[in-house]
Amino acid sequence: MKWNRMIGKKGRNRSRRARHVLHARLSGKGQAREFSRRVGIFLCLAGSLATAALVTSVGMDVILGKLLYSNPDFTLRRFQVEQQGKMGKGELVTATGVRIGQNLLRIDLDDVKESIQRLPNVASVRVERRLPDTLFLAVEERRPVALICPTPTAGTQLAQSTYYIDARGFVLKPKPGEKLMSLPILRGISADEVVEGERTNNTDLKSALLFLKVAPLAPVRDGLDCSVIMIEGPGRFLVSTPRGGKIRFRSGYLEEQFDRLGVIFDYAESKGKIVHTVDLTPERNVPVTFTN
After folding, report:
1. Beta strand extents in 103-224 (DSSP E only)
2. What is the pLDDT of residue 119?
3. Beta bridge partners of 126
4. Are strands 288-291 and 274-279 parallel, antiparallel or unpaired?
5. Smallest Cα–Cα separation from 183: which of 239, 234, 145?
6. What domain range is 62 assigned to?
7. pLDDT attached to residue 46
8. pLDDT at residue 129, as a whole number
9. CATH value at residue 89
10. 11-25, 67-81, 107-121: which has the minimum mean pLDDT?
């Protein structure tokens, strides 16, 4: 009886193992069929996409032409201009070379930007499409920091007696009949060195512009009258004091010169004297004269 039971159990175990093996084999075939099915789907999809791409490449111009480039909804109807300065909206719109009624999507924004940047008074510009019908312009104008009164060369007459110049050295021509801004005046520059709409390469003029930038922050600022700066020659320029004195500066090392001038001003005040002239161009033994 025991042997029969043992044999029966073994037979049942073999039968179960056989079913497991059969199931595993069937599962393997099912996975293969599933894989084949997925590959077939992928190939069909790839073929469909390839066909669509071919059709699209052939008809894209027609589709875009009807949906976008010939669509009246994208007709340019207005300009939106954002700027601070004296330039008028009409001047900026004219400079774009774009007209109302054009298709907004066909406008080359880079071309528009370059056209506006050709205006001498424009420092930077941003151009955007604002769908469906607006072209947006954000313009930053150059801000003059001084006036240049150039010196005519021998035997010539100045076509323009006064120009503006911004902090970066760009020379700007005032508009006809414009009331000039109240700015420091730079003198002593040859007319040949002043070209409208271009950035100056004159190192002395650049030094004078730097002086105008840093002098209001210097400890000796109250002892300087920066309303007129006379550029005397290579590497030096002359500035007045509120009491009529004359201070000659070198083009470089301005901070060091301000420190020296501060010592001189302190000494004059302690002695009850007035600074008449100071020549800061020598590195040592600065010549100074005083008046009572």
Report:
1. 122-130, 134-141, 144-151, 163-166, 171-172, 185-190
2. 93
3. 138
4. antiparallel
5. 145
6. 1-70
7. 54
8. 96
9. 3.10.20.310
10. 11-25
- The CATH number assigned to the domain holding 210 equals 3.40.50
Closest by CA position to 77, among listed 9, 131, 31? 131
Number of domains in the chain: 3
Q: Which residues pair with 229 in a beta bridge?
A: 186, 239
Domain end residue (candidates: 141, 164, 196): 141
Residue with tokens 């054009």: 102
From 154, 246, 231, 176, select the one nearest 200 (Cα to Cα).
231
Mean pLDDT value of segment 211-232: 96
Q: Token digits for 232?
A: 């005397």
Collect contacts of 166-170 with beta carbons under 8 A, ≥24 apart.
166/123, 166/142, 167/143, 167/209, 167/213, 168/142, 168/199, 169/199, 169/200, 169/205, 169/206, 169/209, 170/120, 170/123, 170/142, 170/197, 170/198, 170/199, 170/200
Q: What is the pTM of this model?
A: 0.70
SS3 119: coil
% of the chain exceeding 70 in pLDDT: 77
Strands of the sheet with 122-130, listed across from one edge: 78-84, 134-141, 122-130
